[in-house]
Design goal:
It is built from 6 helices and 13 strands. By secondary structure, the chain is of the alpha/beta class.
Length: about 250
């Protein structure tokens, strides 16, 4: 399984601009040779704004953002994952989604917010593993990473690949200490599950201007070695998989 991980710069308060950047990055990743089987976008839709205290955000899960990503998944014949703030009435939750190569929803992982300056907490511990045509894929959210890294016991054998469409802007403090803490949690998660772990992340235009830690996108091997990290806008890695028993998808473009 070949996975492409996107590190995306979001424009705060400009949802349409950010979505177009995400779609452009998706197309760029899909055009690579060899082509990816799965494209992992970060939690780019309203999550940065929400993490910094804006409550006037969110859309229903099966809304325009999912429709746009699903169209790209069908167009290119690839699996896709991304995250957004889901609004259901007055309730908001960070939601991670996995789509198959037909653009159909395969898995959803919801979290809940504990306050503007606190990390996103998972609604349940663990990971949502789905046996797909490209292998066993485990979907996580940011809260799952914190819980998995601190949990005990061997969880290996559940998935070929763990993915987290993340947004870690408000997590773990600032500067080098933030980067070291988050890296440690991602390494611990990969080791605990004995699987490759792909994490997509966002940064903001303001973060880039300040010269701070730009993002935490990375791919970690099962032994905790970092395969690649922040290597441009898109990173790629080949992940060995067990036979899923399903027919691999055909690329459509």
């Amino acid at each position: 399984m070949r996975v492409a991980v996107v590190q995306l710069v979001v424009r705060m308060g400009h949802r349409a601009t950010t979505l177009q950047r995400a779609l452009a990055a998706f197309d760029g990743a899909a055009e690579a040779d060899p082509a990816p089987d799965l494209i992992l976008l970060p939690s780019f839709c309203d999550v940065a704004e929400w993490a910094r205290g804006d409550k006037d955000v969110g859309e229903r899960l099966e809304g325009p953002t999912l429709a746009a990503i699903a169209h790209r998944a069908r167009q290119w014949g690839v699996f896709a994952s991304f995250g957004l703030v889901e609004r259901s009435g007055n309730r908001l939750a960070v939601c991670s989604a996995l789509l198959d190569h037909d653009g159909d929803l395969v898995a959803v992982r919801r979290g809940e917010h504990a306050g503007a300056e606190q990390q996103v907490a998972s609604s349940a511990s663990g990971v949502d593993v789905r046996n797909t045509a490209i292998g066993a894929v485990g979907l996580m959210n940011a809260g799952d990473v914190y819980q998995a890294a601190g949990a005990s016991g061997d969880a290996s054998g559940q998935a070929d690949l763990l993915i987290c469409p993340g947004c870690f802007l408000s997590a773990g403090g600032k500067g080098p200490a933030r980067g070291a803490e988050l890296t440690g949690k991602m390494v611990a998660t990969a080791r605990r599950f004995g699987a490759h772990f792909a994490v997509a992340d966002v940064s903001t235009e303001a973060d880039g201007a300040l010269g701070g830690v730009i993002g935490m996108a990375m791919i970690v091997a099962p032994d905790g070695a970092i395969v690649c990290r922040e290597a441009g806008e898109v990173m790629y890695a080949d992940v060995p998989v067990a036979l899923s028993g399903q027919t691999p998808p055909n690329r459509r473009k």
